[in-house]
Design a protein that fits this description.
Elements lengths: L20 H31 L2 H29 L1 H25 L4 H29 L5 H14 L1
């Protein structure tokens, strides 16, 4: 029996996460989504302060945060029921359409606080579906031994965004 000097990989460790195509595709999409979220929050704040008073701008941002906090547990149930991949794709699509609608609204008119509040409410509710679903995907796309590395990559992507 000859030895090659290579030890077999421990159970649960497959291809390294930084070389796995599924992980890299997910990480790219997640990073793009996080960049979009950052731009959305800055644009919403800017539009709200430009349209109304600082108190009204705070109200718009609070209206977006409340459904996110209240509905997030339900978002986890929806992710379990329909599958996190479907929920992530559907919620990202809705969020994209909301952003495009807001961009068109800002281009064509000067929306009132009520319109920005409605956008924040819809975005917050859809975000409550997105966040639990996107959090479960790393465990589904990589081996258990690579999960810590994928979560680290996710943290870096969130900071970069």
């Amino acid at each position: 029996m000859t030895t090659t000097g290579l030890r077999p990989a421990p159970a649960g460790i497959g291809r390294p996460a930084h070389r796995d195509g599924n992980v890299l595709r997910w990480l790219s999409a997640y990073t793009a989504s996080m960049v979009g979220d950052s731009v959305y929050f800055v644009a919403l704040s800017w539009a709200a302060t430009r349209t109304g008073s600082p108190a009204q701008a705070g109200l718009v941002l609070a209206v977006g945060a409340v459904p996110r906090a209240v509905l997030m547990l339900g978002g986890g149930v929806v992710a379990d029921r329909f599958g996190p991949r479907r929920v992530v794709i559907a919620s990202d699509t809705v969020r994209c359409l909301v952003i495009l609608g807001v961009a068109a609204l800002l281009l064509l008119t000067a929306p009132g606080i009520w319109a920005l509040t409605l956008v924040a409410l819809v975005f917050g509710a859809v975000d409550a579906l997105f966040l639990p679903s996107v959090g479960t995907l790393p465990a589904r796309i990589t081996a258990p031994g690579q999960l810590a590395r994928v979560q680290g990559m996710r943290g870096v992507a969130a900071r970069v965004a």
